[in-house]
């Protein structure tokens, strides 16, 4: 299936079976419902609300938040654009380190999408790198409204030592996170399947990592409806002011 729903279906089926309220529905109907909930959420209005360069100007706690984190150039901003179906909502660039602040996008009054500055970018001045990463770390560690961090990994590069360090940091702060492969269009299906297994096995050693791994492409749309469905489950059920 082109949008990578297979993984979701397998695990959701296991997880949802004991729920007595679901007894009358088939598992496929439930999966379709999740996909539809994701479609609906991401069809809603999405607007830029704030760009924070220091902890004092983070927007007030409100909506549940999902942060897009990962190395510079991994495709964080592109994934936000692909999910929301808006090409230029988050600024993307060929130049690593483009997103230099934490950008907040309010989706349908139900979820805040948070575009993080990338890590592992060597060219910026040391002071700048320290400042962005200080802010990012502070945000990831101490934000009560952060429901999940998505840790993006470039499918062409796989998990790097710096990603593992970030994962360990998230484990230590008990911040739930989920690995998302990006640029899946760059790999042949067999190589992608192998990478998925490899990364999933490594992620399984990290206590705060969510077991589900999603492979995405902002170019082909692979995995986008699956990720929308997963994020819809984290959103506020009703719009908040
Ligand atoms: N082939 C392919 N290219 C992608 C994909 N997603 C992003 N890119 C490209 O990767 C480059 C970086 O994308 P961005 O979305 O700006 O990456 P980022 O992680 O936000 O980068 P920083 O903000 O600098 O940390 C751009 O040239 C994108 O066009 C994808 O799914 N497939
Ligand atoms: Mg960016």
TrEMBL record:
Region (Disordered): 1-26
GO biological process, one term: division septum assembly
Keyword Magnesium: yes
InterPro entries: G_ENGB_dom (IPR030393), GTP-bd (IPR006073), GTP-bd_ribosome_bio_YsxC (IPR019987), P-loop_NTPase (IPR027417)
Cofactor(s) needed: Mg(2+)
Domain called EngB-type G: residue spans: 62-237
Top-level division of the source organism's lineage: Bacteria
GO cellular component, one term: cytosol
GO molecular function terms noted in the UniProt entry: GTP binding; metal ion binding
Biased composition (Basic and acidic residues): 1-11
Record keywords: Cell cycle, Cell division, GTP-binding, Magnesium, Metal-binding, Nucleotide-binding, Septation
Entry-linked HAMAP family: GTPase_EngB
Cited function: Necessary for normal cell division and for the maintenance of normal septation.
Family: Belongs to the TRAFAC class TrmE-Era-EngA-EngB-Septin-like GTPase superfamily. EngB GTPase family.
Protein name: Probable GTP-binding protein EngB
Organism (species): Hypericibacter terrae
